[in-house]
Amino acid sequence: MKITGTDNEIAKHIGDTARTRTKEPADKPRTPADVPTESTEDAIVHLSQRARDVQRAIEAMQSEPDVRSEKVQAIKKQIKNGTYKIDYDKTAEEMLKAFSDEIS
């Protein structure tokens, strides 16, 4: 998990979260000095199942190449040779499936 932001932004978020849990008044400004510090060795981060699933999905996407170049080359060759055939029924089915997935 990567946390980004300035020290003040992170401290504000931590302070807001802590105030919510302790019902501390929200009008008290928080600074990085107000936030207790822990060594990184002692810090524990709990991720929800959804966050873990998203993290795994991102890792899987990053491990795959953006373009399947061998498939692209094969299709280019077929187009050049005039042998590329479009399966219109399959294309229509995939378009409808993609459309229905967006609505769901």
As a percent range, the share of helical residues equals: 55-70%
Strand content: under 5%
Give a count of the beta strands, DSSP E runs of length 2 or more: 0
Structural class by SSE content: mainly alpha
How many helices in DSSP terms? 4
Alpha-carbon distance between the two ends: 30 Å
Rg estimate, integer Å: 25 Å
The average pLDDT score comes to: 78
The low-confidence runs, each spanning 5 or more residues with pLDDT under 50, are: none
Q: Tell me the major beta sheet.
A: none
Give the overall silhouette: elongated
How many independent structural domains?
A: 2
Q: Strand-and-helix sequence, N→C?
A: HHHH
Q: What can you see in these coordinates?
A:
The protein has 104 residues and is an all-alpha fold. It has two domains: 1-64, no CATH class; 67-104, no CATH class. Helices cover 58% and strands 0% of the residues. The chain is built from four helices and no strands. It has helices at 7-22, 49-63, 69-81, 88-103. It starts with 6 loop residues before the first helix and ends with a helix. The model has no long low-confidence stretch (mean pLDDT 78).
